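queue> holo job accepted (zinc ion)
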Amino acid sequence: MSVDRAELDQSVDEFRDLLEGLALKIHDHPELRFEEHKASRWVAECVEQAAGVQVERGVGGLETALRARIGSGRAPCIALLAEYDALPEIGHACGHNLIAAGAVGAFLALAKQSKHLSGTVELIGTPAEEGGGGKIRLLEAGVFSGVDAAMMYHPFDRDLLAHSALSSSWLSLSFEGKPAHAAMAPWDGNSALTACLETFRLIDSQRVHFRDGVRVHGFVTNGGQAVNIIPERAACEFSVRATTTAELERVRGIVERCARGAALACGVEVRVEARSGYREMRNNMTMARRFGAALEVLGRTPRETDARIGAGSTDMGDLSQSVPSIHPYLAICDEGESMCHEHRFAACARSPRGLATMLVAAKALARTAADLLENPELITQAKREFSA
Ligand SMILES: [Zn+2]
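queue> job finished
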């Protein structure tokens, strides 16, 4: 009573039209964080119609989250995660449409052999990865409480099994000065905008003190009210990222200090609002290597990581701190051709190559889930590594 691996591959190929259609439909209707009403409905309909499995909508109190379950209903439980949110202006430039279709593909293939699963497989639709922290909300709501291992894949420009993701946080800085006529009596005012711009310069001056891997990047969200008024209000937002939570906290303190220093120099008030972002990714190597072995069977040659390329942040990082998890990357374009959050990457996420990678991901996810279910010692090893 074991899952036939070749049959898993075959099933994914049989569902090809359906999966590609799903990926393209989601791509063509980009929805922002927490607004993925169409995408989550299409994912649910796809699973209900193709596998005859009922989908729970609105799990964990999130309207656009979902869950479907197959197998024995007993432990171990493997979660396959589907993201489907898009970005403002540039649409599916992170390729989450391919993540969704790949997870659905793996789930449908496993559902065809549901009777042979020695455990449970869940498909969990996780909204709002782009700045909304959907997985954190689901984690807090207990959606992952019965899950022994969680996995997803992410489109990229190369195949990497266990690339890092940074710990992150957001800072909103609002400056309030004193307005005055910019020509008639500028000496009567205190410019909030000057303090805002000075903050950017001060932060740049501190970069020499940052550790490797730190990222601090921001943009102005309010630059003033009119050309002839000394700006009374100005605001900016920063994202701070680091490879560890400790370094993140240290650098966040520096950014805050720069804002306060700029405000002091300009004679304006500053309000600092910090929101915690995502935690760093803990790649479970036991699972990642299994996924790698499955990829090799499917003709790919993944590396574990690549020091030449930067890292982003993901709410999968938070999940990986609670449950053994993987978040491997798979190429949907040539190395260096394009990168997540670029217009060209959005085009890659609906290209024949992107769709072909999605099918490979579906097969590799399904095979890895089957491996984990059928080898209790693998789960034990993944958990031991997690606790270490
Ligand atoms: Zn992404």
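queue> The chain has a mean pLDDT of 97.
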